[in-house]
Design brief:
The complex is a heterodimer of chains A (about 325) and B (about 230). By secondary structure, chain A is mainly alpha-helical. Chain A has helices at about 25-35, 45-50, 95-100, 100-105, 115-125, 125-135, 145-155, 165-170, 175-190, 220-225, 255-265, 285-295, 300-305, 310-320, and strands spanning about 205, 230-235. In chain A, strands 1-2 form a two-stranded antiparallel ribbon. In chain A, helix 1 (about 25-35) packs across helix 7 (about 145-155). The two termini of chain A are about 30 Å apart. Helix content of chain B is about 20%, strand content about 35%. The chains are: A mainly alpha (about 325), B alpha+beta (about 230). Chains A and B meet through helix 3, helix 4, helix 5 and helix 7 of A and loops of B.
Amino acid sequence: MNLTYPVYFPEPLYAFEYNPLSHKKIELGRILFYDPLLSKDGSISCSSCHSPYNAFAHTDHDLSHGIFDQMGMRNAPALFNLAWQPNFMWDGAIHNLELQALAPIGHPAEMGESIQNVVKKLNESAFYRDLFLQSFGDSVITSRPILKSLAQFQLSLVSANAKYDQVKKGKLTFTEQEERGYQIFKANCNSCHKEPLFSTYKVANNGLTLDPDLMDYGKYASSSEIEDSLLFKIPSLRNLSYTYPYMHDGRFDNVNEVLQHYTKGIANNSFIAEELKGGVILSTKNKIDLKAFLLTLDDKTFVFDSKHSFPKKLLLEAND
Amino acid sequence: MKKWLFCLCFFSGIIAYSQNQTTRISFVAQWDGKIVSLEKNYSLNTLGDSLKFETLKFYITDFQIFKDSILVHSLAKKHILIDFEKPESLVLTSGFAGSFNKIKFTLGIDSATNYLGAMEGDLDPIYNMYWTWQSGYVNFKMEGKSTACPARKNRFQWHLGGYMGAFNSVQSIELGVEQKAQLNLVLDLNKIFNEKDLMKNYQIMTPSLKAKIMAQKVASSFTFVHD
């Protein structure tokens, strides 16, 4: 089966030839995504920080927390349109979606487990042995089918049905205000938050000051190259209403604070992205119009789609 | 009739015998001229310091056998995890019984493979040779304890990885070798680190210049030694 997406989207970057999509594998990945069995004490699943009702973000939390109420260092990003991303995590340190799951599974403050133990636990479950047999043809479970099926479920999370998309398809029209906001967006934001994905998915320095408690240098932490200091992945502007607070450490509670940062709050340093060097000038009216446009990027059908919400099969299995 | 049968058996016996003689390569680690076993104490200096090795494993890729400049055989398995905790992984059966005088292999996992998705077999992340917080295989891992090491629990840990740009620590190795049925490929640990490293450079956990320099030393420490 193929990924469905609008004709005006670019080609996906993910190499599907190494992991061709199948309904069974997507469903298996979905069950794993919602199963807290993947954590050390059975309390945290992927969905604990990536909630479906919030476009798979950890809404209302600036920093995400894992097992034993431990606080992490970053805000869990929303998950959608992953097939178009060249790398993953806020510092872009992970290059293939299939291997991303190793990070939260193994992190002592997130799921606190090890991939070896996850493999062991799944092999001890007749429920999972049967699912893997049906999807991958082998009831002996290794790390590869676990990681590949988790990737398949996440790849299936395509968000392309916002009002903006209906307008692009010619089915709806923007209001006058939304149209004014769209023009302001194109003039001020599009170079980094490029439509129709609303991000180039590159890393950039957008002038955020360093948080002295977190001391998070972004890409520098994984590359050790000084020019990567304070570079963080540019997130998509889709589904903003569901995914607050914003930025890698969730420091902004709402879009007003974000716009305030861009117009007045940018730290004066020479490493800031070229696109922001002239400063961003927006009047109060500009901001109101821009926010009206940003609301057209919310995809309600994505957030309420039962195809990727909690799988009843897992609930039934737990009750056996 | 019986004579025919006898000749047939005799000749097939010879063929079978020579096929059993494909070249075998055994990996051996040495410290101060002694063969290293894990968890055993070795002397470090004349002041009474000692060290022991707890983990020693690394990837080799594209193990190839040459006669002069001609490639005569490549090992069927492209990526192999050599793990001193698993003695069976230390012996490679080449499947080649011909003439050769040179061997080439890569220490580590090549860049292209690092970009591919979840892998299995020797590349399975369950072997703790794949970083979780960033992409990439650990090409060479050595851990142990030494009384000379000031780290917590006297542990030294060298996780050498990196497959991109300036910090690519993958190494190509080429060695001349005398033709024999049993080859000993020796890793001389004295060429990789010394007492000063244990005191000052005992932890490498990310791709970096330090990792690359040490990986180069590892590459230079391989030699074939004959019985």
